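Interim report, section 4.2 (structural modelling).
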Amino acid sequence: MEEVDQIIIHSLNTIGCDIEDDVVSLKQFSTELIVAAAVSCVKSISNENDLPSTLPGGMSARFRMGTTLANAIQELGYRGEIGYQTFLYSNESDIRKVFMFLVDKLPKETVEAMDEPLGASVLLQKAISASVARHLTSPWLPPFLKDHGVAWRGKPPVWQREGACSLHGFYACHLTRPHGSADLTKKISKELKQYYCQCLPFVTNQTAHHHDTLPSVLELNGMEIAKQHEWENEWNQYGLASRLSEEEYKSKKRQRVKKRIIDQLKRDVERADAKTGLGPAENFQQLIDSITSRTSTGVKGKGSRFTHTEKLLFAKDEEKAVSQLVGETATHSEEELQKEREEELNSLREELNNVSSQFSNLDLDVKKFTAGIQELEERLTLQKKENEENEKSYSIKKRTLDLLPDAENNISKLQAVVDASAQRLANLANQWEKHRAPLIQQIQELKELNSKRESEAQVKLGEIKTFREKMKSVADEARNKEEIQKQLLAEYERMAKDVNRSAYTKKIMEIVANIKKQKNDIDKVLVDTRTIQKEINLLSGKLDRTFTVTDELIFKDAKKDESVKKAYRFLAALHENCELLIRTVEDTGIILREIRELEDQIENESNKKVLSNLEKITADYREMRKENAALIAKLKQKS
Amino acid sequence: MDLSSPTLEDLALAGDSVHVPDDVFSVLVKKLFDGINDGNERNISFLSENDRYKNVDKAAVKQAYGGLVTMVTEAAKNDMEIESLSSLLEDCKFSGDRIAALSKAFLQHKPQIQILLNSIGNPPPHIVDIDWRLDYYIKNNHMDKVNEPVYLVSLKTEEAGKPGLQEVQLSCSLEQLQDLVGKLKDATKCLEKDGTVIIYTFQLFNTIFDEYEVPRIAVSLHGQNGAYIDIKTHIFNT
Amino acid sequence: MLLMLEEQHKKHLSFLTSVEIDVVREFCRISIEFIRKGANPKVYQGASQKLGVSVETVQNGVEGLMYLLTESSKLMVNEIDFQDSIMTLGFSEGLRQELLELYVQSRHEVRCILSEMAMDLPHYHNLEWRFDVEVASRSLRHQTTPKILLKLHTEDSGKKEVKVLQTDPVNLVHLTNVLDGALQEMKSAYCRRIVRNIK
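Predicted structure of the assembly:
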């Protein structure tokens, strides 16, 4: 029974009763402990009960509680006999039965937890609850004790953000990386190389602030990937269909884009013109107008400056006086001087204008003359060309005329020359054919070889691709499996505290083996008894038969012989006595068995702690009477 | 993890012992993590300072460095395992020694880089501390015998891009403070119960992660309207 | 505490002794109305014509009553003191009872109106919260950062303001504990003694 007790005690410990270590069997349970354990079992099976977990002090309250507890257990489906006495005046075997029932009914959480699938959502959920739990268990730190709002918590230390002081937005700058140093066949220009080697900083040093480095790096990579995707899409959709090489396709696209931009610009300009409702000529007029108006304002500006100086000159006088003075300038000598000067200036200006117009006229003349010179030169070259042509035609005509007198001869000569060149041409063609045929063959062979190789390469590429994919999938699988393994490991570690599980199974196996052994023993004993019974039967039969035989023999002789008669009588007496003896032996056996049974019963009864329970009951009875008396007294007092 | 083809090229360059000799590589790995993590160490000049590296192609080293920085950053961003990292490096023809050295250094510096990556963002002001003062309001120029307690509460917050602590100040009467504390206790209790209720539909989001580049997803449990899920996405066109 | 009435005030109020009690009642109604909604000079005109006295006298009477009510409400004068204070005005017993009743009835309302005029600080109005878990960001995938978003509504002299704040569980727990402690402080023996002594 010890194993059963241990299992019960362990399960009670897991649901939160603290049972001390030195308690190893149910025999040692006190009444309070029994009640507390039973209550917590009932509570963990169904949450609805609101039983107090400790025994109340008053006797009647104790009885009530015992009864409700018994009822609760009966509601759970317990079939054995149960009442308040089971808990308050416990006996070991009843209590064991009750606890075995309760422990069996306890919810089995661990098994359910094992059955959950380890999907991504579960993993994420676990990660989230772990991080929340870590946050909740970590002590608070004032902000100045954290390194930029980050604190390291837990074991092994994991960082968690508990502030926002070092945060900054995602700001990316352009980064420059040298390229083309891997491919030695492509030369990069000397200047660029020098720039790369001497001046260009490393990528982590290119941003203005250090914290912009990582965003910039991420951004650059993302941009390049996006560009690549875009280009691949376009190439697959339009590029391949156009049957152009990549460079050609790109240049064509560039031209197209350029043209579209130009068209768009033109159209916009036209639209703008249409809006203002002016033709280009009018536009030009407008432009001129605006320029002239600007110059006129410039003149105005000068004028105002002039008046300004004037004002400065006469700033000492009062304003009214000034206006008067302006009216009466003639009377003042200074004013006259001024006027004279102005006139002189005007005349000089006029002269200047004249001279400049003369100059421009002359300029025009010069231009005209130079234009005339050019025209004449052109004419000259034309004439020269004509001259040359004429000379050429003249020489040809002259040669033909020279040849005319000896026409026959010359014609045949010419014919010969023509024939020879024709012959040579044919020869050359033949030779060409000779060279060409093998070359063409070679080309064809090479082409075939090439196509073969290409197809082979394609096949190999396909293979490589499939291998890559396989590799990726295998790697993914491996990663997944590793994750699952990690998860399981973590779970296993968490479970490791539950060492008893294996101990239990071991114990259970042992118990089963023990039971088997005992069963074997019992079987053996049974067989033994059966063989003994058989032997006994056999012997008694033999005895019976020998007795009858001797009985008959002696009985026959007894009639004749007196002494034999005596022997016969003895035999009968012997037989009778032996039978009596056997019966007595059987009776003793029965009695012995009875004695043993009775002893067992006594043992049982003494196990039930009748005496102590009786004492307890009498004590409780007395207590109750006292309580009742007190209550009655109170009642009386009140009434 | 996605790396662009120029980056892969640069990375292959870093694995190539012709362009980046072994001794340069080991220094480069050290400088790499210094340059990413420490703003004071980002000015890297070991090539020009030491005569030993006179014959090294500096352009190639810079290019390889760029590739390594991108790779390390992306790996930290995606929280890559060492195994997949080394298979990537193998594809880029790194030798076993170099893979081991780089993986070890990466593992050592990963949390620090992730802290840096985590510090990118513009969240609302973050409460880090609180001060309070209890006043007993006695009278004002219009009224005598007001006689009620007033709490002056100052929330210390930290804000992205601003140094030091900011303050949010408010006053509360006793009832108002009771209301405030009650609501905060509600929130705390919700955390202690653990957010397990809400995460049922996460499976869906995980597939979204893998299919598209959705950069930011937050799951929310509302205090007042019961539990529902709210997705905030900011999609940047890269 | 007794109200100290100035001579001029007394003179203004003395007009009320010379009229019928119904008229005084009407005056009281008008003065309460004015405290609630502001003065209306037209009413003075009508009353003066009806009573055959100058507008100024009516105005002084009403305003005197208003001042009496606001001043006594401001100081929370108790009933006996109020009665004693107006004893000096020479009012009849009935009139005094009338005024006392008016004072007791309107004291709470007048105090409310006065408290609205008092200086105000930005004070707490409402708090909304929600619990987020950041599971990925543009620059860092695979994270689980718990966050609590708080929306704090404050009010300053009727002007409402909303602030959005955030915090993490560690700080939230700290926040809650500190404020809870502040709340408990009010129940401490020291604070109770102060509250008891300042009455």
